[in-house]
Specification:
10 helices; Arc Repressor Mutant, subunit A; about 65% helix; single chain; mainly alpha; Four Helix Bundle (Hemerythrin (Met), subunit A); two-stranded antiparallel ribbon; 2 domains
Length: about 220
């Protein structure tokens, strides 16, 4: 392959897909990617930035770059079937039972790194030019909250809940605009959740997440 004329992002994406890296898999260090792809380290970093923004990868300071759980957004057949049986109302009730409690744990256990990931997702969601871009960052924000709980069982539970949520939402949500408006209510709600977690206030984090999910329910489905 002529790497001099290939788009670096496309080249790196193909490297990941053809290399058999599954969800959670770790990429080689930048130095090795530079050698294998024939690109400068600066170019590799810019391409990684794009793939991170697209939700294909995520970075863990001091540990490396990993394939995101969101890199494969096609739900399993079991998830699709569960999504067909679950109404949006029941999905929201499940979220209300689980996600505020996760946010409460995040306020106790969040690391600086997970707080940074939350803020990055918030900033990129606000800059999104399409609903698809926004939804990727929305997913990454909520997963960063779950990661901040520092509890693998809660994180696994969130991932399963989120996969079913997407299956339900795909058949239920319609959009009236090409992208979120600048006053999209989730922006302020995400800010409030992140602020409560960063402020180490478990009760405020719980309530901020509860209000956010209730707001999403009213906006998308007209019910709580």
């Amino acid at each position: 392959m002529d790497t001099e004329t290939s788009d670096p992002v496309t080249l790196l994406r193909s490297y990941i897909l053809e290399g058999g890296f599954g969800s959670g898999g770790k990429l080689p260090p930048e130095r090795q990617l530079t050698d294998e792809l024939g690109l400068s380290r600066a170019t590799i970093r810019k391409a990684l930035d794009v793939l991170e923004r697209d939700g294909l990868i995520w970075r863990h300071v001091g540990k490396g770059t990993f394939i995101s759980e969101h890199s494969n957004r096609t739900p399993s057949s079991a998830t699709v079937e569960l999504g067909r049986q679950l109404t949006p109302f029941r999905m929201i009730r499940a979220r209300l039972a689980i996600e505020p409690a996760i946010a409460r744990e995040a306020a106790v256990n969040a690391s600086g790194e997970t707080l940074t990931r939350m803020q990055r997702a918030i900033d990129r969601a606000k800059a999104a030019t399409t609903w698809h871009e926004y939804e990727i960052q929305d997913d990454l924000f909520h997963r960063a909250v779950a990661e901040a709980s520092d509890n693998l069982l809660l994180l696994s539970l969130f991932d399963q809940l989120n996969e079913v949520r997407r299956a339900v939402a795909w058949g239920a949500v319609s959009r009236e605009s090409a992208h979120p408006s600048t006053d999209h209510s989730s922006f302020a709600e995400h800010d409030a959740i992140a602020a409560a977690i960063a402020g180490r206030d478990p009760h405020a984090a719980y309530e901020a997440m509860r209000r956010h999910i209730g707001s999403v329910a009213r906006r998308l489905f007209g019910e709580v």
